């Protein structure tokens, strides 16, 4: 019995299949099957029922997986507390929001490579709900998202706040005053798709302002939102500070609104299962690398 076998059993049980475990561990299906069979031979029990089309974990398999989780957690704790930081190994899958990719992600990677050279990282850029789904399914180890992720077994660490600005092309005719939701409802709204915090935030703003959120153009990239809005096709919501080019070139201008859109908190989120000590240190590095604004006490009041 070895750690690779126990890790394979743990992930196969948690994810519900040997195929999912092979993808999570970046191993071939034959390697995963061999590790499970080696455990079965050593203990003389059946861990997975292979009589059906898809192998399913047996009661004994679930029981052994609980022991495997305890052993792996203890090993992770020992490594975290006793090993030199530079020796921390592992492959970490991190899901990131587009704004993170466009700002401080390179600085984060540079710090990881310098302090933890044995950690490998795979990034997946996606919308908020897709990233949350990936964390819950075990496809991702950490996510950097806008807003918060629901769940009792999740640990959240703030990465700071981003100011969001309504914007439109100068070609769009709008009243020369602070704009309300009813002013903007007359124009198409360009937003990210429903899986995003962006869409949820915009919809809430319109509803709170007693207006209808209608005729939205949806896409999966803030850069696309900016291009569509620059062409005069509608109004959009963007963090102007981090996408300045369209404003410098006067293709877009910021709209003063009442109420203003509240800043969005970004968070690093990981599962609190104690099996991956690297998750904690990477989230701490993300906090240090983040260029997002930290709210002062008066801002929070």
UniProtKB/TrEMBL annotation:
One Gene Ontology MF term: transcription cis-regulatory region binding
Superkingdom of origin organism: Bacteria
One Pfam family in the UniProt entry: HTH_1
Keyword Signal (UniProt): no
HTH lysR-type domain span: 1-58
InterPro entries in alphabetical order: LysR_HTH_N, LysR_subst-bd, WH-like_DNA-bd_sf, WH_DNA-bd_sf
CDD domains (alphabetical): PBP2_LTTR_substrate (cd05466)
Keywords per UniProt: DNA-binding, Transcription, Transcription regulation
Transmembrane segments: none
SUPFAM superfamilies xref list: Periplasmic binding protein-like II (SSF53850), Winged helix' DNA-binding domain (SSF46785)
Entry similarity comment: Belongs to the LysR transcriptional regulatory family.
Protein known as: DNA-binding transcriptional LysR family regulator
Organism, as annotated: Limibacillus halophilus
């Amino acid at each position: 019995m070895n750690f690779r076998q126990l890790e394979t059993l743990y992930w196969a049980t948690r994810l519900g299949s040997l195929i999912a475990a092979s993808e999570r561990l970046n191993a071939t299906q034959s390697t995963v099957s061999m590790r499970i069979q080696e455990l079965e031979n050593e203990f003389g029990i059946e861990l997975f029922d292979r009589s059906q089309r898809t192998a399913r974990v047996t009661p004994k398999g679930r029981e052994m997986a609980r022991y495997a989780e305890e052993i792996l957690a203890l090993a992770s704790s020992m490594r975290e507390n006793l090993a030199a930081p530079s020796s921390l190994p592992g492959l970490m899958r991190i899901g990131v929001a587009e704004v993170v990719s466009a700002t401080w992600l390179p600085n984060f990677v540079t710090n990881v490579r310098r302090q933890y050279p044995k950690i490998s990282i795979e990034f997946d850029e996606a919308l908020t709900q897709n990233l949350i789904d990936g964390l819950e399914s075990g496809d991702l180890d950490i996510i950097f998202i806008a807003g918060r992720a629901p769940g009792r077994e999740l640990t959240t660490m703030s990465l700071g706040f981003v100011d969001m600005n309504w914007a439109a092309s100068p070609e769009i005719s709008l009243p020369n005053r602070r704009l309300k939701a009813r002013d903007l409802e007359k124009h198409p709204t360009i937003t990210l798709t429903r899986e995003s915090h962006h869409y949820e935030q915009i919809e809430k703003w319109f509803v709170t302002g007693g207006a209808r959120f209608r005729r939205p153009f949806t896409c999966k990239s803030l850069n696309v939102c900016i291009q569509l809005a620059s062409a005069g096709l509608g109004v959009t919501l963007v963090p102007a500070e981090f996408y300045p080019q369209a404003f410098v070139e006067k293709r877009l201008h910021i709209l003063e609104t009442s109420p203003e859109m509240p800043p969005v908190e970004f968070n690093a989120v990981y599962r609190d299962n104690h099996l991956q000590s690297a998750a904690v240190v990477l989230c701490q590095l993300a906090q240090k690398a983040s260029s997002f604004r930290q709210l002062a006490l008066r801002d929070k009041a």
